[in-house]
Amino acid sequence: MPNTRPKTTPGRVVAVIVLSFLALVYLVPLAFILINSFKNKLFISADPFSIPTGDSFAGVTNYETGLQLNGFLRAIGWSLFITVCSVIVIVFFCAMTAYYITRVKTWWTSLLYYMFAFSMIAPFQMVMFPTVKIADALGLATPWGMIVLYLGFGAGLSVFLFSGFVRSIPLEIEEAAFIDGCSPLQNYFRVVLPLLKPTAITVAILNAMWVWNDYLLPNLVIGQDENYRTIPIVIQSLIGSNGNRDMGAQMAMLVLAIVPIVIFYLSAQKYIIEGVAAGAVKG
Question: Which residues, including other chains, have CB under 8 Å from residue 118's CB and lie 6 or more apart?
Fold first, then answer.
């Protein structure tokens, strides 16, 4: 059996060192949050980097405090509802839009494509206040309204990725479907949509992570309405109006907020590179 182990070169060693350092940059804050979530809040500020033992070990008290005092379970429900529905809407409509503007060549479909592409580079701060005003005027300050807003903000990247992959689909496949008697809708749902699966999964993962962790847009649109608060808003509310905060409960809620999206990402991470490569390289 041939030896497939890569050769150790100076460049590879430097790359491993740099990547290891970057991994630590991301992992150390997560470890910091996990350790302090089991620590008595009085010891967090005094010695934030120590392992909780003896009097500093609080067990699951911080988790119980966070779950009981802040409506965290209801926030999980709203975050899950907004994230799942937003991802479904984004994937469904953006895939159809990308297919249409890629296959139908007119000046206005080209204009639409470039508008979607431009929306990716427009900073959120530029449209933040107009978005809030429009959302208030249209009554979108609800979880259902948030789904519409997330569709708008997520459409740029999603249409860009779908368009790149649609261009790689040979027209002969669709022509064969039409010859066999498929209507345009049957051609899309039975032939094109199954081929879009890798990119659809990638779009779903990227948007799920963004929507689940988003704090700014729900805070601006929904605000502190206790009926519709999402997880990031509940965690932020642990900071009192006078600056006092329950650091232990805040760390525990951060851990609970991170766990679902980390599990989701690890279970589907292989599709991200596959889908991005399919949408970017083949396009």
Answer: 156
Q: Where are the alpha helices (DSSP H) in 122-230?
A: 124-137, 143-166, 171-179, 184-187, 193-195, 197-213, 216-221
Q: What is the pTM of this model?
A: 0.80
Q: Which two tokens stand for residue 11?
A: 């460049």
Torsion on CA atoms 125, 130, 136, 138, rounded to nearest 10 = -130
Structure tokens at 140: 């979108």
Q: Are 109 and 100 in contact (CB under 8 A)?
A: yes
Distance, CA of 255 to CA of 196 (rounded, Å):
34
Report d(CA 83, CA 77) in Å as an integer: 10
Q: What is the DSSP string of 203-263?
A: HHHHHHHHHHH--HHHHHHTTT-TTS--HHHHHHTTB-TTS-B-HHHHHHHHHHHHHHHHH
Distance, CA of 255 to CA of 82 (rounded, Å): 20
CA distance 264 to 98: 26
For 116-130, what is each residue's pLDDT tens digit?
888 888 888 888 888
pLDDT digits (tens, 9 = 90+) for 121-177: 888 888 888 888 888 888 888 888 899 999 999 898 899 989 988 888 888 888 888
Neighbour count for residue 39 (Cβ, 10 Å): 26
Question: What are the Cα distances from residue 202, in Å, to 28, 73, 91?
Answer: 27, 28, 10
